[in-house]
Amino acid sequence: MKLRGVSPDDVTEKAIYKVLKEKNPEEARGFKDHHASYLRYETLTATDLEIMKFVETVSARSRRYPISYDTLKSFVDVFLYRDLAEEPIAQTDVWRLREKENIGRLLDILAVEALSGRFKLDVGVYKLDERLEQNPQAIPVDHLRAYRLFRKSALKVWAETLRDAMCQYLVIKNKYGKDWHQERPLWAEINLEEWEAIRRGIKAIVGHKVWAETQKDLVGVLASTRQKDWASMLLEGKLPGRPDKLYQELNVSAVVNAMARL
After folding, report:
1. Do the domain assignments include residue 1?
2. What is the pLDDT of residues 93-120, one digit of tens each?
3. Is 174 left (phi over 0), alpha (psi -120 to 50) or beta?
4. How far apart, in whole angstroms, are the C-alpha atoms of residue 55 and residue 57?
5. Which element (helix H / strand E) includes 107?
6. Environment class of 204 (CB within 10 Å of its CB; exposed 0-12, middle 13-18, buried 19+)
7. What pLDDT is stored for residue 27 in this prediction?
8. Taken in order 59, 45, 42, 120, is the CA torsion positive or negative?
9. In this structure, is residue 3 part of a structural domain?
10. How many domains does the chain have?
11. Residue 71 forms part of a structural domain
């Protein structure tokens, strides 16, 4: 691009992709795919994240760990701006670094509030729902809560709710440049007070009644692997296919209210 006389301000992630596409479309596709993978990898390996102690990184299924690596990637993808930026690289690099730090901070808060000292690796996850049906008292409540929180189908629902609540809160705090909250939720300078507000939102999610439910006739329902079932339970407070509201809604408004509460 220098040989072409391109101004430094015109060197962007999108411009690099465009040049590659003109030269070699296949290489350009590889660049785009690798770019998103690189951002995920950097986020999860840049610091010593506490949450990684609870992630299965070897097997597709685990007997001990509550989080699969695929589920962790799904969480990161909810908050990561994976598209190609159109701002000059010099600016983008600063925000990519801040985004990485913010996701790391978010994962550390999650580990403290939901996993560390709560999920017992020696109890594990193997046939946990069956064990729960046989003897609800045998599974510590905090352990059960962590197990359900990090089931992929449930996580997708509450992670997107948390993201949207954080965006709404940070918009009120005037933390975004342009309309970044729509696609770049963590391209923001977040101060200590705001992180404490986000922690309150996470506590509201972690403390929801549904995660600790042990009624025998509900255990099977809460073992659901369907995202739409969890959307019904969390966002509407209703069991799938049933009209009555059993739980308090855990929607964006509820999480924002928790963040704003002192």
Report:
1. no
2. 999 999 999 999 999 999 999 999 999 9
3. left
4. 6
5. helix 89-110
6. buried
7. 86
8. positive
9. no
10. 1
11. yes
